[in-house]
Amino acid sequence: MKRKILTVLSALALVAASNVTFAADAAAGKAKAAMCAGCHGPKGISLAPIYPNLAGQKEAYLVTQIKAFRDGTRVNAIMAPMVKNLSDADAENLAAHFSSLK
């Protein structure tokens, strides 16, 4: 019974998160994205197979992942120093930029 309740609560949380909208500034995100280009490519398409493409990803997903790396809930030795000084607004702006790319 507890497992079913947790599953339902998890599903509701995902639905709620998918409906989140951000008042982000994609132009500010583009300016900040220069630091991402070395691994993720200047247009969000990585040239190296070990780094993910960011172009076209869902904005809410990108915000969540950037904040998780920054806050240490998702651990990666390469990403941690890259995002440690980003504000919530920076994360939202970067996500707006990359999600706008094809």
Can you offer a commentary on this structure?
The protein has 6 helices and no strands. The chain is mainly alpha-helical and 102 residues long. The protein has one domain: Orthogonal Bundle (Cytochrome Bc1 Complex, Chain D, domain 2), CATH 1.10.760. Helix 2 packs across helix 6 and helix 4 runs antiparallel to helix 6. It is globular, with a radius of gyration of 15 Å. The mean pLDDT is 88.
What is the gist of this entry?
The chain is mainly alpha-helical and 102 residues long.
Number of domains: 1
| Number of beta-strand segments | 0
Tell me the name of the CATH class: Mainly Alpha
Q: CATH superfamily, called what?
A: Cytochrome c-like domain
| % residues in beta strands | under 5%
The geometry reads as: globular
- Terminal-residue CA separation: 43 Å
Q: How does the helix and strand content classify structurally?
A: mainly alpha
Percent of residues in helices: 55-70%
Overall mean pLDDT: 88
Largest sheet: none
Counting H and I runs of at least 4 residues, what is the number of helices?
A: 6
By CATH, the architecture is named Orthogonal Bundle
Computed over alpha carbons, the radius of gyration is 15 Å
**Order of helix and strand elements from N to C terminus:** HHHHHH
Return the CATH topology.
Cytochrome Bc1 Complex, Chain D, domain 2
Enumerate the spans where pLDDT stays under 50 for 5 or more consecutive residues: none
